């Protein structure tokens, strides 16, 4: 894995905002300056063996996360995870019905020498679609048009919705997002 620096695109802030990234500057750096959510000054380049190792790590992490959810439901440990009491029954019912998941995105710590370490798992979170698919893809095409990325999110989402089509109660699908 190689960490590479790259000059951000001209007017990159307005470019990513026009692509839907409107949650601005959510944090500050160590000096108190605004730290933008999206950063075009650095990117990572991987070798194919690293990609294959990461894919194996992700499959294992996903199965471990599902096992953890199962334990939370079976042992009724919702309060330990800060889940409000009104959500406990719907969570348990959803788990028992085996409601399908659509996708997930892992935030990993990876140094290229050891297996990836899970920092955060965003499952079925619409905001991650924007950064993980749209923004990355257009940045890549603008800056490195001949390159490819380790991300088949769009294709996989199309396939997943096809798999789930017959499991849904109707042809209508509603997604929601809340900042609460």
TrEMBL record:
<dbReference type="GO" id="GO:0046872">
    <property type="term" value="F:metal ion binding"/>
</dbReference>
<dbReference type="GO" id="GO:0005524">
    <property type="term" value="F:ATP binding"/>
</dbReference>
<protein>
    <recommendedName>
        <fullName>Glutathionylspermidine synthase pre-ATP-grasp-like domain-containing protein</fullName>
    </recommendedName>
</protein>
<dbReference type="GO" id="GO:0016874">
    <property type="term" value="F:ligase activity"/>
</dbReference>
<dbReference type="InterPro" id="IPR005494">
    <property type="entry name" value="GSPS_pre-ATP-grasp-like_dom"/>
</dbReference>
<keyword id="KW-0067">ATP-binding</keyword>
<keyword id="KW-0479">Metal-binding</keyword>
<dbReference type="Pfam" id="PF03738">
    <property type="entry name" value="GSP_synth"/>
</dbReference>
<keyword id="KW-0547">Nucleotide-binding</keyword>
<keyword id="KW-0460">Magnesium</keyword>
<keyword id="KW-0436">Ligase</keyword>
<feature type="domain" description="Glutathionylspermidine synthase pre-ATP-grasp-like">
    <location>
        <begin position="12"/>
        <end position="176"/>
    </location>
</feature>
């Amino acid at each position: 894995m190689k960490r590479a620096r790259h000059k951000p695109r001209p007017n990159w802030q307005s470019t990513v905002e026009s692509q839907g990234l409107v949650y601005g500057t959510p944090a500050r750096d160590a000096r108190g300056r605004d730290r933008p959510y999206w950063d075009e000054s650095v990117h990572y380049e991987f070798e194919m063996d690293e990609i294959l190792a990461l894919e194996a790590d992700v499959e294992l992490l996903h199965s471990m996360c599902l096992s953890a959810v199962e334990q939370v439901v079976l042992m009724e440990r919702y309060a330990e995870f800060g889940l409000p009491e009104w959500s406990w029954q719907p969570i348990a019912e959803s788990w028992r019905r085996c409601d399908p998941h659509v996708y997930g995105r892992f935030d990993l710590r990876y140094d290229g020498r050891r297996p990836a370490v899970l920092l955060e798992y965003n499952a079925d979170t619409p905001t991650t679609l924007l950064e993980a698919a749209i923004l990355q893809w257009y940045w890549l095409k603008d800056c490195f048009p001949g390159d490819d990325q380790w991300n088949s999110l769009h294709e996989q989402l199309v396939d997943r919705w096809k798999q789930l089509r017959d499991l849904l109660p109707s042809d209508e699908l509603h997604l929601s997002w809340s900042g609460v």
